[in-house]
Structure formats: C-alpha cells, structure tokens
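Propose amino acids for all 191 sites.
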C-alpha cells in the first residue's frame, strides 16, 4: 500500500500525506510496533514520492477493559506503541511530526501523553451508551441525556437495562442486532 501511495503521488505530481497505522492490540489493521524492519520499510516507501506525516493508533482493546487502572494501562500501551514507532522512524531520519492516539476510554484515562501530538477519540466529548456501559461515563453524562423529552431519556435508560458485559462484545453485538430485526441482522452480518 505504501508503494502504491508513493506511485500515485509521483503520477499526480503531488506528495500525498499519509499516516502509518500502528496495531497496538495485535488484532487490528496496521503494523505491530515491534516490527521495526517493516516500520522502516513502509516509512522509506512512503517517502519515495508520498509524504510520511506520522503514526496513529486506536486502542480497540480498551473497550474490553474494566476499571480505571485497567484503562490507564491500556492508555499507556497505546501511547508507548506510537511513541516508540515515531522514535524509531525519527532515528532513521524519517519525518514523524504526527503521533496520534484515539480511543475514548483511553483518552479519558491517560495519565501521561508525553510524545503524543494528537488525541482523536470518537465520542470523547459527547459520550454514548457504549461508554456508559463500560464505565467511562454515567448515562447522565451523555450529551443526549440533557434532552428534556421524556421519551428520549427513557429510551437511553432502557437501552442499558439488562446489558451483560460478561459476554464477548461480538456476542453482545449479535444479540442486539437480532433484537432490532431482520434488516439489522443483515447489516450485522456485513460487519
């Protein structure tokens, strides 16, 4: 992919900026932060026409963490993965001005963001029922919870009743989609 972006950049006559994704969970897309040779190969490939702007990650595993200490640990692993990758790239003479992390659970529980230049968490400001369910916020903290229509607040509260967090996220998602009906089951199968 890095070579394709560099080739497209050369053909277009413009350096396409790119961030390298770091797989800090061991199961998402991106490069493992411990694969130093691959990080350097991708960085050099991008610089051969494109513009390496930096590294980014998303701590998807943080959605499975429970409790403030577990979330702090996830945030530190997230931070370390991109900071270490950025350091490696910089030491090899490659540019890495952007060092980006992004997950709402870790953004709210990070004890240290040294070396990070950007926090891009999805529902960081507004929250949602997922964040309430894993304990990052309370239902009353959700931006929608300030809505005065009783039916909206009732719906928000009902949607978390009976949720079981002792089952894997995939099982919970499948069951939620099944409760919503056939159209959502098809959508869930696509996911």
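Proposal:
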């Amino acid at each position: 992919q890095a070579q394709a972006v560099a080739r497209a950049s050369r053909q277009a006559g413009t350096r396409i900026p790119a961030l390298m994704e770091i797989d800090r969970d061991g199961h998402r897309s991106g490069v493992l932060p411990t694969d130093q040779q691959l990080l350097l190969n991708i960085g050099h490939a991008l610089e051969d026409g494109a513009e390496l702007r930096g590294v980014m990650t998303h701590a998807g595993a943080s959605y499975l963490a429970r409790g403030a200490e577990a979330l702090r640990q996830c945030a530190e692993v997230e931070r370390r993965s991109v900071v270490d990758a950025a350091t490696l790239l910089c030491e090899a003479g490659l540019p890495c001005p952007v060092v980006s992390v992004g997950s709402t659970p870790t953004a709210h529980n990070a004890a240290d963001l040294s070396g990070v230049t950007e926090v891009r968490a999805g529902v960081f400001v507004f929250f949602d029922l997922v964040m309430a369910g894993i304990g990052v916020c309370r239902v009353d903290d959700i931006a929608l919870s300030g809505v005065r229509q009783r039916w909206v607040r009732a719906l928000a509260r009902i949607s978390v009743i009976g949720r079981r967090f002792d089952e894997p996220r995939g099982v919970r998602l499948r069951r939620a989609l099944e409760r919503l009906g056939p159209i959502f089951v098809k959508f869930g199968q696509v996911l």
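Residues 184-191 have pLDDT under 50 and may be disordered. The chain is about 45% helix and 10% strand.
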